[in-house]
TrEMBL record:
Domain PX, first and last residues per copy: 14-140
SUPFAM superfamilies given in the database record: PX domain
PROSITE patterns (UniProt xref): PX
Protein name as annotated: PX domain-containing protein
SMART domains listed in its UniProt record: PX
One Pfam family cited in the UniProt record for this chain: PX
InterPro entries from the UniProt entry: PX_dom, PX_dom_sf, PX_SNX4, SNX4
Length: 238
């Protein structure tokens, strides 16, 4: 759904802050989530007056809703990815808690980059649903549902399943599928190895991180070895 009378290339977009909130989900159960403040400001104005900044709050599920819609309506376009929903690696020194301040800040930056990449795309920047995502705070999901993108996504899945039932598939497609499956397996194995190595390395750093303090305290009670222990503690800290 594109419109020719507006373009998000003429609007400055930022995700300026995050806020922890509590509400009810679709199952009427209380949940805690993070909402992000999106601010937009026009960069083109001919009357010389200052331009007011519009702002609204969106939670992460709304960003996912927007991306799913774009994937369905623009299958020929590589839609930018969203940042991860939770911290998965201990060596990032991020808590597994989704409300961890460091993680929330990193996700805020990722969400802002996601919107900026969409706005810089020559086709996506003119999409009406994307524009309403930035400007219409109420009933936005209802507007997306009216596009029927869910039914279109279901029909695409059915068409995809039908392709696997072809009696005489193209040999090139079969070779490409085997290659992609093998590549996925190799990459998954490399990521698992990387995770194990990083976990061990993080454990070593965590253990050695206390040595500097131990040597410094030890140097305070030693007369002959005090200077050497203090120097060793300093090097361990480095």
């Amino acid at each position: 759904m594109t419109e020719s009378n507006f373009s998000l290339k003429k609007i400055e977009i930022s995700v300026s802050e995050a806020e922890k909130r509590t509400g009810r989900n679709a199952m009427n159960m209380q949940e805690t989530y993070t909402a992000y403040l999106i601010e937009t400001r026009s960069v083109e104005h001919s009357d010389g007056q200052s331009v007011l900044t519009d702002s609204l709050w969106r939670r992460c599920s709304a960003f996912e809703w927007l991306r799913n819609y774009l994937l369905v309506y623009y299958p020929h376009i590589v839609v930018p990815p969203l940042p991860e929903k939770r911290a998965e690696f201990v060596w990032h020194k991020l808590s597994a808690d989704n409300m961890d301040p460091d993680f929330v800040e990193r996700r805020r930056i990722g969400l802002e980059n996601f919107l900026l990449r969409l706005a810089s795309h020559p086709i996506l920047c003119r999409d009406k649903i994307f524009y309403l995502f930035l400007t219409q705070e109420g009933n936005w999901k209802e507007t997306v549902n009216e596009t029927g993108f869910q039914l279109k996504a279901d029909s695409r899945l059915k068409a995809l399943n039908a392709t696997f039932r072809v009696k005489n598939p193209d040999k090139r497609c079969i070779e490409l599928k085997h290659y992609s499956d093998e590549l996925q397996s190799v990459i998954s194995h490399l990521l698992r190895v990387r995770a194990r190595v990083a976990d061990r390395l993080y454990g070593v750093y965590k253990v050695h991180g206390n040595y500097g303090r131990v040597f410094s305290e030890w140097s305070a009670i030693e007369k002959e070895m005090g200077d050497g222990l203090q120097s060793a503690g300093h090097h361990m800290d480095v």
